[in-house]
Design a protein that fits this description.
The protein is of the alpha+beta class. It is built from 4 helices and 5 strands; from the N terminus they run E-H-E-E-E-H-H-H-E.
């Protein structure tokens, strides 16, 4: 039995979060579902081409409607305000359900 875990690619559909990753090599992102962590790659859309290699690290489970849960990570999210980040979460997920924060880094 192998200890390796398949880590699926991570999608950055939001231009602001994607820009943060590309420009700074690091982004904190919200996901509604718990996901695999480790070395993987990222793309802009679910079926899009690979845009770069990255590493995904789990930070914590959060309620995105709680400003204080997002504020410590707001600067690394790429968004100017927690409210703007919450708007993007709502737009991408259709709601403000509980989820998870992940730190994604690139070597580029």
């Amino acid at each position: 039995m192998s200890d390796s875990v398949h880590v699926g690619p991570i999608v950055f559909a939001d231009a602001i979060a994607r820009g943060q990753l590309v420009e700074h090599g690091e982004v904190v992102t919200f996901r509604t579902d718990d996901r695999t962590t480790g070395d993987t790659w990222w793309r802009e859309s679910r079926l899009g081409e690979k845009r770069g290699d990255c590493r995904v690290e789990h930070i914590d489970a959060v309620d995105p409607s709680d400003d204080s849960a997002l504020e410590p990570y707001r600067e690394l999210s790429g968004f100017d305000t927690v409210g703007n980040w919450q708007d993007a979460i709502r737009e991408l997920n259709g709601a403000m359900d509980d989820g998870y924060l992940y730190r994604v880094t690139t070597d580029e």
